[in-house]
Structure formats: C-alpha cells, structure tokens
Write a structure and sequence with these properties.
binds manganese (II) ion, nine-stranded mixed β-sheet, 22% strand, alpha+beta, Phosphoenolpyruvate Carboxykinase, domain 3, 3 domains, Phosphoenolpyruvate Carboxykinase, domain 2, binds oxalic acid, 29% helix, Phosphoenolpyruvate Carboxykinase, domain 1, globular
C-alpha cells in the first residue's frame, strides 16, 4: 500500500521482533472492516448485538485486570529525567527499549499484525498529523476505525516522508506486571504492551494526540490540550466557540453535547459539539485568534451515568456503529445496559466480567464488586452519528476560540465560575486545577488531586516547561486576539454535602455569562481570585431550585478554604520542581497577598 521506505523498514524491524504469522494492511474499507468484525465474532472477541435495535453495534469484554489507563505504568522516555519532569514516570530510552524488546520478542507468534495508517485531524489539513499503529488486536483495529481517520488516503498524504508517529501495540499475555505504555518523544515513537484496554492501546488518542502532540506542540509553537470544543449558537445564528478542560470523568462529554434548558431552546439557542476530549490549538497569524480542531473522529465515552437526562445526544450517538466495552449484556434481547442508563436493568444478563448477573445483588456501597457494568465501561462511537455534531467538525482550519474554561470538582473552594485577570493569570488558574475525591472512590473523601489543565497524566514532557509553553504562547506578538480564560465548578455543595447547582444543561447559563464577558457585554466583581459574576447576571429564568440566595452562595469566595488551598498548591509546585516558571510563583504570591487583604 506504500513505497515509503521509512514505513516499510520500520514495519520489517517490528515484525522481525514480534514475529507475526502474517501482516495485514488496513485500508479503511467497509468490506475489510466487516470481515474483521465477523472474524472477531467467530473467536468471541466481539459479540454482535441486536441488529434491529442497535445496528452494527458490538460488545467487547476486556480482561478483568485490564480495565483502565495505567498511569503507574505509563512512561515518558526522554534522554534525561529532567525533560520528563517529576510528574511523569521516566526511564532512559535505551533501558526501556531493552526491556520492551524482551517483552515483544515473539509476542505476535501465531497472531496477525495489523498495520493501521491513521490521521489525527482531517487528512490533508494543515492541522493533521499521521501515525501508523501496528497491533495484534482486531478490537484495536475496529476502535481505531471509529476514533481516527484510517486507510490508504493517509499513506498517500504521507507520501515518502518520515514524518509520522510510530506505534507498536502487542497484547502479549495481558500481564499486569509487565504492562508498559511508553513514549519516546524524540523518536516519534509509542510502544504499548500487555494491555487491551482503550486508553492504553488506541495509540492515536492519549499517547499520540496528547503526550507526543504536546511535545511536538511545544517544539512547533502550538498546543495539544485535554479539552472539549463546543459551539454555542445564538438565536440570530451567530456561533461562539469554547474549549474546556476538566479532569477525566468530570463531564466533558456531557458539556460538549449539552442540550440548552427549555427556556433557551425555545428562543433558538443551540449547542454544537466539535469534540469531547482533545483539542489542538494554533494561533492564526491573520486574525491573531486561537483556532481549535478536534483531531479525533469519534468518542470513547464513559457509559455509566450516560442517560436521557445527563446526555441524550451521547446516548443517541451510541445507537448504531458502536463498540461497547465492559457493559452489561441483556441476553433477552441482545442489547446493552449500564448503571445509570435507566431504571430497568435487564432480568437476564451477563456482567462485564462475563458472568450471569442479577441486578438485585447490586450494592451501592460495594459498586465495583456488584455493578453489572464496569464503572469505566465505554462506548466507542462515530462523531458523525452525534445529533449535535458541529458542521465545523471536519473543518480544515478549525474554529476560533472565544473562551477557555478550566474546571474541577470542588465542594467549597471554587465558585461556580470566575474569570482570570489575563492570560498569565489564566495559566496560573490552569496550573492549580484540582478535584476532590468523592464518596464514590475508595479512600478518604475530599482529598485534593492537582490536575493542571487536566493534563497531569498527558503531558509528554516536564510539567513546569509545559506551563512555560502556555506563558510563551501568551507572549507571542502575533497572538493579538486571545481567548479569555475562566474556571468553573459545577460541584459546589451545601453543608450537608448536597449539590447546590443543578448542572447538566443548566450549565449553559454559565456559558452565556462567559461569552458575554468575552463580548464585553457584562460587568463583573473583582475579587482576590479573579472576576466573578454579579449574582443577577447569571440568567436563572425558569430555574426554580436556584434561589437568589443560592446564587450568592455559589458565587462566594471562601477565603479560609482558599488560604488553606494555597498551602496545598505550594506543596504541589514543590513536587513539580524547579522548572516551575517564576511567573507562576509570582501569581501564587499575588494571590496570597490578595487573600490576606480580604
Ligand atoms: C480519559 C479518557 O481517561 O478520555 O481522560 O478516556
Ligand atoms: Mn479524556
């Protein structure tokens, strides 16, 4: 399929190490995909679901020890530890290559090696970057066919160039002790072994589009971020674009596909989804604005909790052409189910482990052991099947970003929304992003995990240098029309621990304030942490449970909580180490001084 000597010699090298029984090139055709689905069904790797109710949908179960990304076994292998920084696991490239060589040695014996040429971004667009993933898993091939743009067009666009990302994945024995997800940014190489779970093996996603791309972005003057992209359409047809970064499992997919509350819907407001997980951002020299593309082609969303209320658009997207992973199989009608889908769990079912499952045994206090679907079970669905997919989804140049939002899950510390003073302060706000653990997770409640820009597990180099890159972007003379940077918190609680903001579609009310700020249409209150809305400026029309008093609460700055947080931030900065830019410490000191004056 190609005469590219860089591609061919690398595949030769990988094949002589892994020794597959055959090599099959993935051309992106429906015929080949269908043949692979059939083959996977014949071996039990996939189960075909009810063709009438869920056309072209399949179920897959991973090994029980292989259900999530493994941050502890994810490595950035730069020549020096300093380049990877303290937040990443690091191993010297030679040492890691030697270790991997042993694990890959003959790992594809009696298996087929699939060669997947794929593009992150629209093939041929100025934003696009190409990759080739070698894998011995049909599940990976079929997921990549949804999540990325795959096939001969990619090889044609690559031509004779060596400029592609090499990715090698082998399931090997799925041995947890020898599971490695490794990145060699200087070699444009990703190597993954002993896993079959999405984030570890769909190498275009976290490994390429975030870790390697963030490294390339720094080198080449752009940004790869863990952000959704949405367009908010006003009744007059004007559309403004927002990107938002939240830690994993904090509702990015829900916000990206938001359905406006009825009062706004009736007036003609709409929200369009451009992406739910990753944004590649570039400064456009002509208008000085930041432009965003979503390099992916599908959604790899968390199933549990997705329902008609939380995200009807995501649910609709999963009704065809979808691969479900680790959800419940309803054996009465061959459909799928998960906790939080509806109140009708199937009478006869098989759980994510592959065992017969009786929903009556479900115990909320012991979710992991008794749930039918794994809490991290997923759907892999095509973006084009989403009812609210943006007409700009396939745009070659991306959408202009008016606002960047950071967010976390904080019971008290962060107000519903605040605006940073400027790009530098906004970078600081991103650097201190955090979430508190909830009762749902094992361990102590309310423990703060710092997750800067939601990129803690995804920066392919030193976190301090990554913050410096944000600052450097802000200092570019051609970046004249910067988005404003905000922080939101949908998870504020009262003293009894009840959420006081309804969230979901109602979050649109906050987006409207944000965009009004960007358009210079509304005033704000200057506080120690940033600009806050005047309570009356968040439109609560038709929202009965949020009284003006609650709104005041939501928009208050808890000075003691912030003062305590500053100590935690200092500890985190110390952990990031001596690459933390001086400007971030200046921002931290300025915040401390402003809090002291309150
Ligand atoms: C994540 C994901 O873990 O998107 O962030 O899967
Ligand atoms: Mn994510």
């Amino acid at each position: 399929m190609t005469t590219n000597k860089y591609v061919l010699s690398w595949i030769d090298e990988m094949a002589s190490m892994t020794r597959p029984k055959e090599i099959v090139w993935i051309d992106g055709s429906e015929e080949q995909a269908e043949a692979l689905r059939k083959e996977a069904c014949s071996t039990g790797e996939l189960t075909k679901l009810n063709e009438e109710l869920l056309p072209n949908c399949y179920l897959h179960r991973t090994a029980v020890n292989d259900v999530a990304r493994v941050e502890g076994r994810t490595y950035i292998c730069t020549p020096t530890k300093e380049e990877a920084g303290n937040i990443n696991n690091w191993m010297a490239p030679d040492e890691m290559y030697a270790k991997l060589k042993k694990l890959y040695n003959g790992a594809m014996k009696d298996r087929t090696m699939y060669v997947i040429p794929y593009s992150m971004g629209v093939v041929g667009s100025p934003f696009a970057k190409y990759g080739i993933e070698l894998t011995d898993s049909i599940y990976v091939v079929l997921n990549m066919l949804i999540m990325t743009r795959v096939g001969t067009a990619v090889l044609k666009a690559l031509g004779d160039s060596p400029d592609y990302i090499k990715g090698l994945h082998a399931k090997a024995d799925l041995d947890e002790e020898n599971r490695y997800i490794t990145h060699f940014p200087q070699d444009n190489t990703i190597m993954s072994v002993n896993s079959g779970y999405g984030g570890n093996v769909l190498l275009g996603k976290k490994c390429f589009a975030l870790r390697i791309a963030s490294y390339l972005g720094r080198k080449e003057g752009w940004m790869a971020e863990h952000m959704l992209i949405l367009g908010l359409e006003y009744p007059n047809g004007e559309i403004k674009y927002i990107t938002a970064a939240f830690p994993s499992a904090c509702g990015k997919t829900n916000l990206a596909m938001l359905i406006p509350p009825e009062v706004f819907r009736k007036k003609g407001y709409k929200v369009w989804c451009v992406g739910d997980d990753i944004a590649w951002l570039r400064v456009n020299k002509e208008d000085g604005k930041l432009y965003a593309v979503n390099p992916e082609n599908g959604f790899f969303g968390v199933a549990p909790g997705t329902n008609e209320k939380s995200n009807p658009n995501a649910l609709a997207t999963t009704k065809r052409d979808t691969i479900f992973t680790n959800v419940v199989l309803n054996t009465d009608n061959n459909t799928v189910w998960w906790e939080g889908l509806d109140n009708n769990p199937p009478e006869h079912a098989i759980d994510w482990r592959g065992n017969a499952w009786d929903y009556r045994t479900y115990d909320k206090a012991n979710k992991l052991a008794t749930a039918g679907a794994h809490p991290n079970s997923r759907f892999t669905a095509l973006a084009k099947n989403c009812p609210c997919i943006s007409s700009e989804f396939n745009s070659l140049t991306g959408v202009p970003v008016s606002a960047i939002i950071f967010g976390g899950r904080r019971a008290k510390t962060a107000p519903l929304v605040y605006q940073s003073f400027n790009w530098r302060h906004g970078t600081f706000v991103g650097s201190i992003m955090a979430s508190e653990t909830t009762a749902a997770a094992a361990g102590a409640i309310g423990v703060v995990r710092r997750d800067p820009m939601a990129m803690r597990p995804f920066v392919g180099y030193n976190m301090g240098d990554y913050w410096q890159h944000w600052l450097d972007m802000g200092n570019r003379p051609d970046f004249t029309n910067k988005p404003l940077i905000f922080h939101v918190n949908w998870f504020r609680t009262d003293d009894e621990g009840n959420f006081i903001w309804p969230g979901y579609g109602e979050n649109m009310r906050v987006l409207l304030w944000i965009l009004d700020r960007c358009a210079g249409k509304v005033d704000a209150v200057k506080t120690a942490i940033g600009y806050l809305p005047k309570p009356e400026d968040i439109n609560i029309e038709g929202l009965d449970d949020v009284t003006p008093d609650t709104m005041k609460d939501l928009l208050s700055v808890d000075v003691p909580a912030w003062t305590a947080d500053v100590e935690n931030i200092k500890e985190f900065y110390a952990q990031v180490g001596d690459h933390v830019p001086a400007a971030m410490y200046e921002e931290l000191n300025a915040l401390t001084a402003r809090l002291a004056k309150e």
